[in-house]
Design goal:
six-stranded antiparallel β-sheet, three-stranded antiparallel β-sheet, 4 helices, globular
Length: about 170
């Protein structure tokens, strides 16, 4: 579960969100004083959120894992995203991303049910093979607004995902 903690800075008291995937295996990465928590889905997506979020405006980064179905296929040639919506439009529609490979077209549904596409990784539009060669860094897909934190909390932590991959 994600836990919220309050801590004191040297100048003033600030509330910041500190994401903790669980107490036993903290899957946190400290990059430039930002804390990230990454969760994983059974359809081999990863979603990361950081401490700049609040519960009313959760922004996540969405990508595919190295264990995903894309690595069982040929190189990605083309990626199709839905249109980025206006602020006033509903974010209750499922997010589906289409990946075209040499031999197949793969439709992927976001593991976050209530989300809105807010930006696309422009690098993968120019270099779609990043999804195969660097899925956890350069090959991230898009940024999404997460409407319901429970969608994120229901995903697996790193240990659970690794165990899932061993069994399946």
């Amino acid at each position: 579960m994600i836990s919220l903690k309050t801590f004191k800075s040297t100048n003033s008291i600030r509330n910041r969100i500190f994401f903790s995937c669980n107490n036993n295996n903290n899957n946190l990465k400290n990059l430039s004083n930002k804390f990230f928590c990454t969760r994983y889905s059974k359809n081999h997506f990863w979603v990361s959120i950081n401490n700049n979020n609040d519960n009313n405006n959760m922004i996540g980064t969405l990508g595919l894992t190295e264990n995903g179905p894309i690595n069982k296929f040929d190189d990605v040639l083309y990626i199709k995203f839905p249109i980025i919506k206006d602020e006033n439009q509903s974010d209750n529609e499922p997010l589906t991303i289409s990946l075209d490979t040499i031999s197949d077209q793969i439709l992927l549904n976001s593991p976050i049910k209530n989300c809105k596409l807010i930006s696309i990784n422009q690098d993968i539009l120019d270099y779609p093979n990043y999804i195969n060669s660097s899925p956890m860094s350069k090959g991230w897909l898009c940024k999404i607004k997460i409407s319901n934190i429970n969608d994120f909390n229901s995903l697996m932590n790193k240990n659970e995902y690794d165990n899932y991959c061993k069994i399946n």
